[in-house]
Amino acid sequence: MTTTIAYADVPRLVGVDLGYSDWMEITQARVNTFADATEDHQWIHTDPERAKEGPFGTAVAHGFLTLSLLIPLWSDLLEVEGVGSKVNYGLDKVRFVSPVPVGSRIRLTGVIADVAEVPGGYQLVVDVTIETEGGTKPAVVARSLQRLYA
User: Fold this and answer.
1) Over 90: is that where the pLDDT of 1 sits?
2) Among the four given CATH numbers 3.10.129.10, 3.40.50.2300, 3.20.20.80, 3.30.70.3340, the one describing domain 11-149
3) What is the pLDDT of residue 69?
4) CA pair distance 141, 7, nearest whole angstrom
5) 8 Cβ neighbours under 8 A, 6+ residues apart
6) Residue 7 confidence (pLDDT)
7) Are 18 and 78 in contact (CB under 8 A)?
């Protein structure tokens, strides 16, 4: 469920748990497209037959593919009205905790750790977790830095 707030209320977000995004399926086509875009065609990602004999028993998504999906998943969590532009300012302490099997579904959860004023806007520090449906450990944990400008 999306939390919707006004730009002026952004400083009040500190400590807010934004809940969960919708689920997103990780298809082999998505993995192959990412492999083409990044020129990372390692067989554990792109060769499902060979991957059956690999360390995960199946083809898995690239860690950086899973991380990049933070962006579309994030739109399910927070909508700030009155924002002129949004900027992904970076990430701190990213960890790829567990593999994401092709065919599985992932979702995002986030907690606003801090909000700081920056010239022309606010910087949000968000502790995010991407989890795999039915998984026992998160797929990705990170601290996301996002800027909102009026």
Assistant:
1) no
2) 3.10.129.10
3) 98
4) 27
5) 82
6) 96
7) yes
Q: Based on C-alpha coordinates, what's the Rg of the chain?
A: 17
Residue extents of the structural domains in the chain: 11-149
> For the chain, how many helices (H) and strands (E)?
5, 8
Please state the rounded mean pLDDT for residues 80-101: 96
pLDDT (mean) for 9-38: 98
- 48 close to 97: Cβ distance less than 8 angstroms: no
Place of tokens 């998984």: 135
d(CA 47, CA 49): 6
Would you give the distance in Å from CA 15 to the centre of its chain? 19
Compute the average pLDDT of residues 119-125.
97
Which residue has tokens 């579904």?
105
CA distances from 31 to 7, 52, 108, 127, 142 (A): 36, 16, 18, 25, 21
